[in-house]
Design goal:
Elements: H1 21-41, E1 44-47, H2 51-64, H3 76-84, E2 88-94, E3 97-107, E4 113-122, H4 130-144, E5 149-154, H5 159-168, E6 172-177, E7 196-202, H6 206-212, E8 217-218, H7 221-226, E9 230-235, E10 241-243, E11 250-254, H8 259-265, H9 267-286, E12 290-295, E13 299-303, E14 316-317, E15 330-332
Parallel strand pairs: 4-5, 9-11
Antiparallel strand pairs: 1-2, 2-3, 3-4, 4-15, 5-7, 6-7, 8-14, 9-10, 11-13, 12-13
Length: 339
């Protein structure tokens, strides 16, 4: 059975030969949430297959990341190949103008997982939650095809992206990746090592359903500290990273307010933050610790291995408006997902 397209460009596709009625209803619910998010942002989000629109996506990514024409983030040829082979390419349009885009491809296990490679929003759509609408469209598209999980990477030093990914979307970090992409030559990442957090978005989990319905998980660093959490990494009076103690089952790990500005104004301090976060958060995760949430004031909440309760998520529920990026050229959403 095929329903008519919804306002946000999602067409629920439910095949009873391959999908239970319950999962079909959940895919339809995801499509409705995606349409509502697009409408609230003042855009239409839809799949992109037309060659001219794919070229526009290439241009948008190059502009947001300030990439050289000689080193595009994604070539038009690659975008065409991904589209033709049935992978995800979504665009957010305000009228005929492309203001955001996201690209993902199927990963292992085959046809059950998608890896979201890159997503960005132009300056024209900043502050309107267009990135949220793009992610909900990607979720609905994936659920319609039987996908249960989307993964992506992001720079764990970028505070707004940490909040967006872990609170507003309720994705969960699984691995700290050291210098994952190697040298990059775009205007955002040049000169910095490309450490990333790999996150997984379990599309039909209760936290994700709640987040997509506008009820993000919200970690509370002050409450965690009052309950005995220790500060494993803090920011000193001059803004430099200050290692703390690991002598607690729950740990708080700080990130700077604006690492992108630090890279421009105080590059040595930015590199110090990269090294410090790698040493603290990277080591903790390698030892089995789990990031259970992110406080918007700039703290990862981390539970050490052996300290997990059955219902422990490290978060409480609450409403928060969320934040989009504030760069002049636009906003890389979520890591590479933002390179």
């Amino acid at each position: 059975m095929t329903d008519s397209p919804t306002a946000g460009g999602i067409t629920p596709v439910i095949d009873s030969n391959h999908r239970s009625r319950d999962s079909g209803h959940r895919a339809a619910d995801a499509a409705a949430l995606a349409s509502a998010a697009a409408e609230a942002s003042g855009v239409q989000v839809r799949e992109v297959r037309d060659g001219r629109e794919l070229d526009a996506i290439q241009g948008l990514f190059n502009f947001v990341w300030q990439a050289s024409p000689a080193s595009p983030l994604m070539t038009g040829e690659l975008l065409r190949a991904l589209a033709k082979s049935g992978n995800y390419i979504g665009g957010a349009f305000e009228g005929n103008e492309l203001v955001g885009a996201s690209v993902g491809f199927f990963g292992a296990p085959a046809e059950e997982a998608v890896h979201s490679h890159i997503a960005g929003v132009s300056n024209a759509a900043r502050g309107r939650s267009v990135g949220f609408a793009l992610k909900l469209h990607q979720r609905a598209w994936s659920m319609q095809r039987g996908v249960s999980e989307i993964s992506w990477t992001y720079d764990p030093l970028v505070r707004r992206n940490s909040y967006f990914n872990l609170a507003k979307l309720a994705a969960r970090p699984e691995e700290y990746l050291t210098d994952f992409y190697g040298d990059t030559h775009d205007g955002i990442n040049a000169g910095d090592e490309t450490d990333r957090l790999l996150v997984r978005w379990r599309l039909d989990s209760e936290p994700v359903r709640a987040a997509c319905a506008g009820e993000p998980g919200r970690a509370d660093a002050d409450a965690a500290r009052a309950a005995g959490a220790a500060v494993a990494l803090d920011s000193g009076p001059g803004g430099a990273p200050v290692p703390g103690t690991l002598d607690a089952s729950t740990l708080l790990v700080a990130v700077p307010p604006d690492i992108e500005r630090l890279r421009l104004t105080t590059p040595d301090q930015a590199r110090d933050w990269r090294s410090a976060l790698r040493e603290v958060l990277g080591t903790l995760m390698a030892e089995g610790a789990r990031v259970t949430g992110f406080d918007r004031s700039g703290w990862y909440v981390v539970r050490r291995s052996g300290a997990f309760g059955v219902e422990d998520t490290g978060q409480d529920t609450g409403h928060d408006a969320g934040a989009e990026g504030t760069r002049t050229h636009g906003s890389p959403l979520t890591g590479k997902e933002q390179r």
